[in-house]
Write a structure and sequence with these properties.
The chain is mainly alpha-helical. It has nine helices and no strands. Helix 1 crosses helix 6 and helix 5 packs antiparallel against helix 6. The N and C termini lie far apart (72 Å). About 3% of the residues have low confidence.
């Protein structure tokens, strides 16, 4: 029964994510009306189901990256927050299952990635964890503008760390070029 409930929640969230975006239009490619672009921006889901999945996932991410916090207390405080918002006791059990699903799913995925805790990801985890520990369990705002500023691949390589050496034209770069001469 609980596996069906979890799968149903993922299906609902997946379908909601697919249907909320406006898609690519010629106006978005060649520059359209700012109001149309704002209307097409994905909406942040801030319902109990989305919050449970987000807080559970973040807790797993923070645990993986070595943040020192009480994961059990975060879960307990989150569920108490939902109860204070008027969520029925029967629905709290469903939210706990969704929380655990997010926690376990992200925990398993992160364990398989040795480079999971890169600088970009840990900065976001730190920000979100601080909000949650302060009692704000809302979903973080989407960063649509960042992807648009980066162009076609829009952050595809975020988190990739490449040691490119000294920046081109700097004194260190010229020294490294002199060292390469025969």
């Amino acid at each position: 029964m609980s596996a069906r409930l979890v799968m149903s929640a993922f299906l609902v969230l997946g379908l909601a994510a697919c249907s909320s975006a406006g898609g690519v239009t010629t106006g978005s490619l060649i520059g359209g009306d700012d109001q149309k672009a704002a209307a097409a921006a994905p909406q942040v889901s801030n319902d109990p189901t989305a919050r449970a999945l987000q807080v559970g996932s973040l807790s797993a991410r923070a645990s993986k990256c070595g943040y020192n916090f009480d994961a059990a207390a975060l879960k307990s405080n989150y569920l108490a927050y939902e109860a204070a918002q008027g969520v029925q006791v029967t629905d709290l059990g469903r939210l706990e299952v969704i929380y655990e699903t997010g926690y376990n799913g992200v925990g398993k995925a992160a364990a398989a990635d040795p480079n999971y805790c890169n600088a970009t990801r840990t900065a976001q985890i730190k920000t979100d964890l601080a909000r949650h520990l302060a009692g704000d369990y809302s979903a973080p705002p989407q960063q649509v503008a960042k992807a648009e500023e980066q162009g076609f691949l829009g952050g595809f390589f975020d988190g990739d760390t490449v040691d490119s050496g000294p920046s081109f034209g700097s004194e260190s770069w010229w020294e490294s070029q002199r060292d390469k001469l025969p």
